[in-house]
Batch of 2 targets.
Target 1
Amino acid sequence: MTTGSDWQAQVGRTWAENYRLTDRSFAGLTERLLARIGGCEGQSVLDIGCGAGELSLAVARGNPAASVVGVDVSADLVEAARQRGGALANVSFELADAGSWSPTGFRPDRLISRHGVMFFDAPRGAFAHLRAISAPGAELVFSCFRSPRLNPWATQLASLLELPPAADPYAPGPFAFAEQDHVTAILTDAGWRDVTHTEVDFAYVAGMGEDPVDDALNLFTRIGPAAPVLRSLDAGRRDQALGWMRDWLGQHRSGDLVALPAAAWIVTAAH
Ligand SMILES: C[S@@+](CC[C@H](N)C(=O)[O-])C[C@H]1O[C@@H](n2cnc3c(N)ncnc32)[C@H](O)[C@@H]1O
């Protein structure tokens, strides 16, 4: 489980320090998401849980006549996004809970998100609020992970350590929106209609360079579900777990790259 308070504290700080690595991991997905979002010229675009701003910035650069606002609950990530976007006139970033943020003079025609919507404590209320602040005819497009089973980059360590699965699969966290019917019900209850789900499989780039396995281990000790598990182990068990991870990552090395299978949804809905 990863809550809004986790993002406001250490998790957000770590992501802000490492956004180049997460943007690299998600690059294959970002391309697909941007293709689905398509042109936004002349539109107001809201990026929900924008993090360090990669998606907001890409849309703002590609659509100079769009007005893009990224909203995030982590002060460290909003600061990183503002620094990255300083030179662009058509993008800004707000520190707020997207599930209750009430802008003045901004009514989004497009609501977009790369993996920023699975962390709401009360997703039905949040999506109802987002619909209420949107323009009539607005379109929602976001990505989220599919089943943990299809995302071994996130689950392999837990399976090597034989940890039990999460007690509540719908608790806020990376896999809270993995089940299609669950997400459709949330969005429909919140007033959104015509919900669609499209499967996207992509290569999660975990490591690169001269020693891509070491690079990937470095990523997983800092970010993602393996990091808190590794921190919780005593020194001996941690070394053993790192050894297992190293072997497993080595099996996925191809030249100067470690890329792991990853599975996401692109979800769309209409106002
Ligand atoms: C997995 S990260 C994705 C960040 C960014 N969209 C990206 O692709 O790099 C999830 C993001 O959602 C943000 N977040 C979580 N709960 C939120 C909320 N209630 N309102 C706004 N942002 C939230 C986190 O701070 C974090 O930046």
Target 2
Amino acid sequence: MNKNVLIAGASRGLGLCLTRKYLEEGCTVFAGAREEAAPGLQELKARYGDLLIPLRMDVSDTRSVINAAAAASDCTDHLDIIINNAGIHSDTSFLELEDTDLDDCLPVYNVNAVGPLRVVKAFLPLLLKGNSGLAANISSESGSIGTAGRIKEFDYCMSKAALNMGTKLLHNYLKDKGIRVIAVHPGWMRTDMGGQAATQDPYETACRLTELLEDVREGRNDAVFMDHNGIQFPW
Ligand SMILES: NC(=O)c1ccc[n+]([C@@H]2O[C@H](COP(=O)([O-])OP(=O)(O)OC[C@H]3O[C@@H](n4cnc5c(N)ncnc54)[C@H](OP(=O)(O)O)[C@@H]3O)[C@@H](O)[C@H]2O)c1
């Protein structure tokens, strides 16, 4: 069935692959990006035309997210799926404590942890009018406190742990309104963030995730934090 899907952070990497996959399925995709004329999105726009609706949206900026939601409301009366995919690392993330700049943590928390909440808040009226509404937050195993073994990446790991808590709170709040909210670890992907040594192709991951999100929407998976295969992940 045709669905209306919002993807935050759609300009490249996993977000661009998810945009492509949903367009291939015939869905209408609202592609939120800091630069909505990003080359990858322009290529998809040339191919898929009106099915792709680029939205200028910086998830770290409340006004930008509110404006994007208003622009989406001019084009549709509902959304079925929101995917919060935008994510960043700081430049000093991979240094040990003595060398890392902890002030770098704040912008990372803003994008990775608060950004998805901004997006869900601004687009919630559209999601509530959708069909089996789902908000999927792209998290990471690095946000799991139970399995943590790293000694650095404070900014990123703490931001994803906070995103996981935000996901659980949203899940609790929205479940009685018919909305599912989940956090998904997508696996290690060959993107700008993941690097070329990573084990997964981002388009293949996008294909797996679209199937997984249907499983969740149709009630075949009731986990809240899971990996890309749908296996529940420890908080
Ligand atoms: N790659 C991995 O192995 C891996 C593993 C676990 C989890 N993840 C998560 O998966 C998601 C996608 O990662 P990726 O590997 O595709 O990363 P990526 O290639 O670095 O792409 C990141 C995307 O986020 C967007 N973005 C960053 N800040 C933004 C902002 N303020 N507002 C809107 N968009 C913003 C970027 O847009 P611009 O082009 O404007 O910068 C870009 O589209 C992230 O949440 C990441 O944490 C990735």
